UniProtKB/TrEMBL annotation, chains A, B:
Belongs to the DSD1 family. The keyword Lyase applies. Residues 237-344 form the D-serine dehydratase-like domain. This is Alanine racemase. Pfam families: Ala_racemase_N, D-ser_dehydrat. SMART domains: D-ser_dehydrat (SM01119). GO terms for molecular function: alanine racemase activity. Its EC number is 5.1.1.1. It is an enzyme of class 5 (isomerase).
């Protein structure tokens, strides 16, 4: 984990862009402290609960990067009254008008980043839709003010080559910068230009016009990231420890006491060239067993077996043997657990236990 | 929920079989109290953590229905020393011998149910494998003793007709009873004959030879259960409340603030005749919007749109509107949350908040 954090820090520094780590993967104060270099610097959150937990821990520069809805205006303003510089995102003139008209005279205006759709992934305003950008910006008066633009190239997770990853990085940057320039041409200030996803930041070669990069999953990495070439399997810093509880030699498999409650149901590698099932199996020290994957997941049971078509030999395991299972998606597997057991570098000893937070 | 609990209670009473509710779906003391009729009667757990939480709450008759591994012997014995009649399951002579040889002279023997594989679903001894049944039973001396047999027809979740469900119920009962009789013929006592899954219990017509039935998901039901005909959609007692945060009329969809962290990644209806995506969308009162399903799930975002091929009309929703989303799999969706918000029967008011417990 420490190596992954340093890699992203150095990458952002090299691109001369601010780094605003996303806390949604880790949801853990000890991890976030390391992601921010101990400085309680800028962070990104995906829920107001995350923002509230970070505010309690002394973080004051927070972007809430999921479209704000009217039923959350009060909680967002409460955070700002408590001294947090919370910035929010939205992508419609209706929400902008509603936010502008909310709050009391004593409240400071809520800074808004207009969400930009740089790759057709999910939500946001098209970068060149000057009419809508202008309509939103025009409404950000009174209880709200325009602070800039934000985009997330979520489609970059489906990239299949270094070139495609570089293209997504360019697409994301160009979309955000174009939207900011459109707003400026209309006479609006758009100070913050925020972009990011782990793949697009790590494959970016030029961040001109961008003020900050957001990324989260890099802290642990996972099999999906390894599958698109953003990290090596050996960089994955999160695993689930499981015990063999049934040996089924005649079926060429073992049953272990980790199911979807431990791994999640995420099958993010199913559409990749190498399907890792519900996870790739390692020994206790983290050495990968060739082609050994979790092929089935029930609530508290998993089946581990060789990947279909494998010519590798099934390792000899006995009831009670421990294995580590690397996750498809670190965010999803992490969210199934209430704490991380922290190991030393050799993964030989547990040296600490760090609580996660959840909820909304 | 109250209606679902009463339905299962009446069914077990009619079959003259004991009911041992499985707590893995709800993981919530207030729900479990209602499943056991306020009597703190027999319960089934899927983790030792569940057993420990129930023991603290005064439950003393607990079956831990996931194969025991040697690294859990100490915790199992600790529960028994605290006055809990904890029964465990295993399916190998090796584990039986290890358990028999563990513990101290002061410990009472751990009662063991031999896990029986009635339908090829996952783990267990084949019902007619007298050699293995005998070998396990022979080893259950000293620190362990034979208490009976247990099976779970997990394949019943894939049934597609009432007849198939009745067949699974028969298969499950016949397998468990045959294994118990095999053990008795070998001179072993096999007092407890434990079977169960929600579909097989609700479709059972004869429990002769069975002493107890286990079931869990019936407490909430879900779209998978509705899809196989075990309940109606209107019986589903669990939903996720979400807000619309982006209207995408041109794409025929809405984005809501509930993603896989709220629904889980379970796609259990994908293999059923009607694929419900990540969930079926209702209004706040629980009235289903025809064909409106969650078609995509990101971490904190979901897309809701009409089912492919639907001729229904997309309902008019606006930013901030609230919808309820019914889950594919109640166990999986429940496990994404730290508490249940309890509504009145009209789903109009939240009347209580009940905490869940998790972990292992």
């Amino acid at each position: 984990m420490a190596r992954n954090i340093e890699r992203m820090r150095a990458k952002a520094a090299g691109l001369r862009v601010g780094l605003r780590p996303h806390v949604k993967t880790a949801k853990c104060l000890e991890v976030i402290e390391r992601m921010t270099g101990g400085l309680r610097g800028p962070v990104t959150v995906s829920t107001l609960r995350e923002a509230e937990r970070l505010a309690e821990a002394g973080y004051t520069d927070i972007v809430y990067a999921v479209g704000l809805t009217p039923n959350k205006f009060d909680r967002a303003r409460a955070l700002r009254r408590d001294g947090v510089d919370l910035k929010v995102i939205l992508d419609s003139a209706e929400t902008a008008a509603a936010l502008a008209g909310s709050g009391s005279a004593d409240d400071s205006p809520v800074p808004v980043l207009i969400e930009i759709d740089s790759d057709g992934h999910r939500a946001g305003v098209k970068p060149h839709d000057g009419a809508l950008l202008g309509a939103i910006a025009d409404r950000l008066t009174g209880g709200a003010c325009l602070a800039g633009v934000l985009t997330h190239a979520g489609e970059s997770y489906s990239a299949r080559s270094d070139e495609a990853l570089r293209d997504f990085a360019t697409l994301e940057r160009d979309g955000a910068v174009a939207a900011a320039e459109t707003l400026r041409a209309l006479g609006h200030g758009a100070e913050i230009v925020s972009i990011g996803s782990t793949p697009s930041v790590l494959f970016s070669e030029d961040m001109s016009g961008v003020t900050e990069a957001r990324a989260g999953v890099y802290v642990f990495f996972d099999l999906v990231m390894a599958g698109i070439g953003v990290c090596a399997v050996d960089d994955i810093a999160l695993s689930v420890l499981a015990s063999v509880n049934t040996v089924q030699a005649e079926r060429g498999r073992y049953v272990v006491d980790a199911g979807w409650t431990a791994m999640s149901r995420d099958r993010g590698t199913a559409s990749q060239p190498v399907d890792q099932g519900y996870g790739l199996v390692c020994d206790l020290e983290g050495n990968v067993y060739p082609d050994l994957i979790m092929t089935e997941a029930n609530q508290e049971h998993g089946a581990i077996a060789l990947r279909p078509g494998s010519t590798a030999e099934l390792p000899k395991l006995a009831v009670g043997d421990l294995v580590r299972i690397l996750p498809n998606h670190a965010c999803a597997t992490g969210s199934q657990h209430e704490a991380y057991l922290v190991t030393d570098e050799a993964r030989a000893a547990v040296v600490d236990r760090w609580l996660r937070f959840g909820g909304w």
